[in-house]
Amino acid sequence: MKSNFAVRTMRAGELELALEWARQEGWNPGVDDALAFWEADPSGFLIGAIGEVPVGCISVVRYGEAFAFLGLYMLHPEFRGKGYGKQLWNKGMMLAGNRIIGLDGVVAQQENYRRHGFETAYRTLRYGGIPKVPDVEELQARQVVPVADGKLNGLIHYDAEIFPGLRHSFIRAWCGAPERRKSFIVGGGSRVRGYGTIRRCFEGYKIGPLFANKPEVALALLARLLAEAKGAPVYLDVPVENAQAVRFAEECGLSPLFETARMYRGQAPEMPLDRVFGVTTLELG
């Protein structure tokens, strides 16, 4: 049976299957993640199949020539323990080439990733629950506006100051589709001071990214984003090193649910974690 197993680039529509597997694993992806994920790097998603039957997947999304991010590494439970996962992993590593590779690893897998040359850079906690929308000064609240097409260029440049790689296509798809996700920004042009996105997931909503220069900007964005959930559960992945972000999550009534670690193979990029109040996604970084 193993001789029929092969790894290839995903075809149109197969990313939805991978995200359905992610839902079954309890990862709670967004209901409309596939299109924006695909825009990030259409050839960065691999599927492992026995004949024409998909049984596993991995993504290694490349952001420019220096950085890649690994995620969506899964095998269908019936096909584990047969060596297929190793073949998927090896093909993914080939995709990355000489780039620095990042991933967000659950605690149970971190030792395994270390054996493959990954080192922990920082811990992340997923917070979740029914949020309390924080009170924000009226002046701060008025500065939070929806992201419009005319603001995308400034937002993309701002994002590149914080995220380790250039992700123009992804940000245009992620923040430029108000029917799929709600994105808000403070400032504009070369004076962007923060932005954030909330999207509907299979359970409740997730916020990510939430980037801001100052805590008060992050709090104003958070208040606006949480209001979009209209009382439904909200989830937010927070770098533990950003103590202010942890405090905001807890003051909004969210509780820690599980932990991951941002790990890198190669030189860890310099990330201004004091500006990261919420990770974009654990799948794509």
Tell me the distance between the termini: 34 Å
The SSE order reads EHHEEEHEHEHEHHEEEHEHEE
Give the class from helix and strand content and strand pairing.
Answer: alpha+beta
The strand count comes to: 13
What is the overall pLDDT average?
94
**What characteristic shape results from the CA principal axes?**
globular
Radius of gyration: 19 Å
Q: Tell me the helix content.
A: 25-40%
Uncertain segments are: none
Beta fraction of the residues? 25-35%
Largest sheet: 13 strands, mixed
Number of continuous helical runs:
9
Labels describing this entry:
single chain, alpha+beta, 13-stranded mixed β-sheet, globular
Q: What is the topology?
A:
Elements: E1 5-9, H1 14-24, H2 33-40, E2 45-50, E3 53-63, E4 67-75, H3 84-96, E5 100-106, H4 110-115, E6 119-129, H5 138-142, E7 144-146, H6 152-160, H7 168-175, E8 181-186, E9 194-200, E10 205-212, H8 215-228, E11 234-239, H9 243-251, E12 255-265, E13 276-278
Parallel strand pairs: 4-5, 10-11
Antiparallel strand pairs: 1-2, 2-3, 3-4, 5-12, 6-11, 6-12, 7-8, 8-9, 9-10, 10-13
Protein model, in words:
Helices cover 29% and strands 33% of the residues. By secondary structure, it is α+β, with helices and mostly antiparallel strands. Strands 1, 2, 3, 4, 5, 6, 7, 8, 9, 10, 11, 12 and 13 form a 13-stranded mixed beta sheet that branches. Strand 3 (53-63) and strand 4 (67-75) form a beta hairpin. It starts with a strand and ends in a 7-residue tail after the last strand.
